[in-house]
Amino acid sequence: MQLDNLLKGKLVKRYKRFLADVILDDGSEVTAHCPNTGSMKNCAEPGSRVWLQDSGNPKRKYPLGWELVEVEGRYLACINTGLANKLMREAIEQDVITQLQGYESIRQEVKYGENSRIDLLLEDAEKGRVWVEIKNVTLLEENNWGSFPDAVTTRGAKHLKELMLMVEQGDRAVMLFCVPHTGIQKVRPADHIDPEYGRLLRQAKEAGVEVIAYAARIDEQQVTIERELPVEL
User: Fold this and answer.
1) Residue 192 contacts by C-beta under 8 Å, 6 or more apart in sequence?
2) Same domain? 126 vs 144
3) Residue 137 — pLDDT band, cuts 50, 70, 90?
4) What is the DSSP string of 28-71?
5) 3-state class percentages of the chain: helix first, strand second, coil last, to nearest 5
6) Together in a domain, 55 and 130
């Protein structure tokens, strides 16, 4: 996925969840939209190098959107969680995600479970259906671990229960972790943050839900899913 004409700057602060003040390289200070509802733990340190995307829409109150951040002065992370589904669909269509190859169609936001919408539904006359829930992992911890979630997520727990229900009904179900962070080399549940999510993730795996993770290559021009990462439960 291409990132065009990003503006560089330094983060002053992130606040009210959806806003971030940034000093651009030309010295001007701007307020940008932050497209991430999570805590962004370890990804929103004041003074961090950041990259903003200009929407080109002057009618927007905040036309600039925060896309990338430099973590620990050496890694790049894409904090725009709205890109995760697009990145994974692109990777599936390009046969990068080997576990999800060979399906006739892909649909997004299909209703299922308890008034939820699945991120991706893959269908094939011979292979049947695969329900794919996608979560974005950007919390880098010691020894290059990527942990999820970065805050307690009742919604994420609900999604795991719904995936288990799909398996009970005879379909495949996949918990797919999107890892747009160049410092993360392996993925695990963040039991120290949300032990209930970790418990349910292990239960889902035992029930037949497939748990996989794929990492992205990131630079100032593009974010591209390229390789599988180990998941330790």
Assistant:
1) none
2) yes
3) very high
4) -EEEEE----S--TTS--TT-EEEEEE---TTSSS-EEEEEEEE
5) 20, 45, 35
6) no
Among 56, 78, 100, the domain boundary falls at 78
Residue type, 93: E
pTM equals 0.95
Q: What does 99-128 look like in DSSP terms, one character per residue?
A: GG-S-SEEEEEEEETTTEEEEEEEEETTTE
Domain boundary residue among 63, 78, 93?
A: 78
Q: What is the pLDDT of residues 8-31, one digit of tens each?
A: 999 999 999 999 999 999 999 999
Measure the CA–CA gap between 206 and 170, rounded to whole angstroms.
15
Question: Which tokens in the block code for residue 112?
Answer: 């299922």
Residue 9, token pair as written in the block? 């700057």
Are residues 142 and 31 part of one domain?
A: no
Same domain for 193 and 94, yes or no, is yes
Pair 131, 202 in one domain: yes
Summarize pLDDT for 147-193 with one digit per residue, the tens. 999 999 999 999 999 999 999 999 999 999 999 999 999 999 999 99
